[in-house]
Amino acid sequence: MPFFNFADYKQHYIQLIKIGLPIVLGQVGVIVLGFADTIMIGHHTTVELAAASLVNNIFNLAIIFGTGFAYGLTPLVGELFGRGDRDKIGALLKGSLLANTIVALIITAVMTVVYLNIDNMGQPDELMKYVKPYYIIILVSIFFVMIFNSFKQFADGITDTRTAMWLLIIGNVMNIAGNYVLIYGKFGCPELGLVGAGLSTLASRVAMVLLFVIIFVRSERYAVYRKGFTKASFDRVIFRRLNSLGWPVAFQMGMEGASFNLSAIMVGWLGSLALAAHQIAVTFSTLSYMVIYGMGAATSIRVSYFVGQSDYVSVRRSAFAGFHLSMVIIIMVSIVFALLRNDMGYWFTDNAEVAAITSGLVFIVMLYQFGDATQIVFANSLRGISDVKPMMFIAFFAYFVVSLPVGYFLGFVVDLGIYGIWLAYPIGLTTAGVLFFLRFNRKTSLTKVSRLSS
After folding, report:
1. Which chain regions cross the lipid bilayer (predicted)?
2. What is the DSSP string of 392-446?
């Protein structure tokens, strides 16, 4: 039997692209919004760009953590969908909305404590008058992010990835239009700068939730799930299951996000220019991350579907097909980055020093994408087989034992500055990717269902 036979993977490639493309397009929409936010804020003032970088990096951790918790719904829905058991999926959604609401309240409380201590983070004093009002507005929007996540993971689990895609696109168009009006004070509105960007983000997040609720209530496609949703009462078994899958994924993703956000705080110690360049480079790196994460999410959906059918050969092939496609995407993105690296900084700011720092960081972005793609695909594959608890320990080792200390050492001891901090990213991400792969490869080499899902 050959090591690789294209015919064995062809159908998996097709299905992953079919399911994953709407997720990717939705994720790219999020990145376009990030680009628009950064460009519009950066051309208003560089100080506001640095303030946005600080707040967005702090909240990225909270949003990543909350999104990770919501991902616990996807493998459960996928397994039921694979078995053709539609009645219980509506009950799962109802339980997820309750669980996500509780998590949203916890995140809001934690982020409020962070807000009360934001003056003690060692950031430049000139940022604070912009940071604080923007922070409060984004804090209010967290609840709506979590509710949207519940509906999105439900829809993704039944392979309806297009609905969330269109809602993300609509929300992003609303956000960009709102930015133009409120940041610069167009059409008789006051010029609010960074606060205007925050208000526009909040409004778009509320709108996306309302639209998803309307679609769920009215769509014929969701009728069978709506019936289960309406009839379901509080189910402790479902609630415990959602929590048992959601918290480990949340902590795994949260630790990954925390390593990046703590690195951003270290970058802030270098001054506003370094922080502004960091924000621009993060915006570009997040582009490839979101594209690959769309493919990773599709991989998780397919893997959980085949777990529901007890087809473990297809479980493995789906995972490796996702990895193959991700590597192709990374190579294509890296070529684009290499060609545009000298121009990227100027898209966001007129400051030549910020643009020069950004150009240097692009090489590191290209380097770490390969480790990032590996950890994304195999982390999602582990979620698909509901083997999530070990991921927390792997993430802790890769990001807190390896990445952060290396970043501090290279950045401040070796004195490479922002480049040293960023060089730690490929090291930590590759470590995580290899360990996730080894775990998935070992677990899926087992053939008994009880051992696979233990």
Report:
1. 21-42, 54-77, 97-118, 133-151, 163-183, 195-217, 260-281, 287-307, 319-340, 352-370, 391-410, 416-438
2. HHHHIIIIIIIIHHHHHIIIIIS--THHHHHHHHHHHHHHHHHHHHHHHHHHTT-
CA distance 56 to 382: 28
Query: C-alpha angle 136/145/51, rounded to 5°?
Result: 35
Output the pLDDT for position 254. 82
Q: Six-digit token pair at 125?
A: 């004093």
Match 């539609």 to its residue by tokens. 86
Q: What are phi and psi of 401, to 5 degrees?
A: -85, -35
Tell me how far apart the alpha carbons of residues 92 and 100 are, in angstroms, rounded to a whole number. Answer: 12
Could you tell me the pTM of the whole model?
0.79
Coil, strand or helix at 350: coil
Sign of the C-alpha dihedral, residues 343, 58, 37, 29?
A: positive
Q: 323: pLDDT confidence band, cut at 50, 70 and 90?
A: very high
Residues 428, 439: Cα–Cα separation, whole Å? 17
444 backbone dihedrals φ, ψ, rounded to 5°: -85, -5
State pLDDT tens for residues 126-182: 777 778 888 899 899 999 999 999 999 889 888 888 898 899 889 888 888 888 888
State the first-to-last Cα distance of the chain, in angstroms, to the nearest integer: 30
Could you give the maximum distance between any two Cα atoms of the chain, in Å? 70
